[in-house]
Design a protein that fits this description.
189 residues; alpha+beta; two-stranded antiparallel sheet; globular
């Protein structure tokens, strides 16, 4: 595992939601200005994915979470460079009870999307990609919020919704088990 992200469940005025960040444009690079979950590369001092996700959340949002806030870890997912990322699901509790102090060097904005919004079909979309080798794949996109949620963050959001609301959300995409160079076996997603 090269990196970890925290999937922050919270409530806003009693409504369950997910908390997202808009990465600072000061960062530069391919993820600048993207919607993301708090997270980043594993440090040698991090004991595991949970430690990485909690440390990165503290650095990016200024909030310290205890291990008891962690619900568990989703399966490892490859990022665009093929590095494996561990999504760690945690409950922040009521957002009104938290004091977030986003690090402006890393976070441009913090926003939430209610689970009810994410579960509405009119707020769900898909982007189709083709690689030079001709392999096509489809990724989820969540729309109609303050920012479009796409890429790895949308994949993690989709897996989280499938876990939290299996009777209301069914994943419509195939999540690759290996890095981006993985070849499809059988029919494509």
């Amino acid at each position: 595992m090269a990196a970890a992200v925290l999937v922050p469940l919270c409530s806003v005025r009693g409504r369950p939601a997910l908390l997202f960040t808009l990465r600072s444009r000061r960062l530069g690079g391919p993820h600048s200005g993207d919607v993301s979950f708090p997270g980043g590369r594993r440090d040698p001092a991090d004991g595991d994915a949970v430690a990485t996700a909690l440390r990165e959340t503290r650095e990016e949002l200024g909030v310290t979470l205890e291990n008891r806030s962690v619900w568990g870890q989703l399966r490892l997912l490859p990022d665009r460079q093929g590095q494996m990322v561990a999504p760690v699901v945690a409950n922040l509790g009521p957002l009104e009870d938290l004091t977030l102090t986003p690090n402006p060097d890393e976070v441009e904005e913090v926003f939430t999307l209610p689970l009810a919004h994410l579960l509405r079909e009119e707020n769900q979309g898909y982007t189709h990609f083709r690689t030079a080798a001709g392999y096509g794949y489809t990724l989820p996109v969540f729309l109609n919020g303050p920012h479009k949620v796409w890429g790895l963050t949308a994949i993690v959001t989709e897996l989280t919704l499938e876990l939290l609301a299996p009777d209301r959300y069914r994943r419509k995409t195939h999540v690759p088990a290996r890095g981006p160079s993985a070849r499809p076996q059988g029919s494509s997603a």
